[in-house]
Amino acid sequence: MAPATSLPIESGNDILFPPMYDFVWSVIPFVILLVVSITVATVEYTRKRDVVASLGWGALVLFLPIIGFVIWAVAALIRRENRTAIKG
């Protein structure tokens, strides 16, 4: 039986959370960033951009997560408006 002063997640020497709990929840944000970065690079590559530009946009989103994604989205919207203005 645990002493009355122990925290709810403690029970003497027994930890109630699995040992990998902290590791898994620490890795998930990095996995999400990697998936978003690969998605941005793939979208840029399918838009007929060269490989270096595609990897550059992917790296921007990977290393500057929120700001990089906003910069990429604004640049994509500007390119889209320029493309539609030229067509007609």
From TrEMBL:
The chain crosses the membrane at residues 23-43, 55-78. Keywords: Membrane, Transmembrane, Transmembrane helix. This is Cardiolipin synthase N-terminal domain-containing protein. The lineage of its organism: Bacteria, Bacillati, Actinomycetota, Actinomycetes, Mycobacteriales.
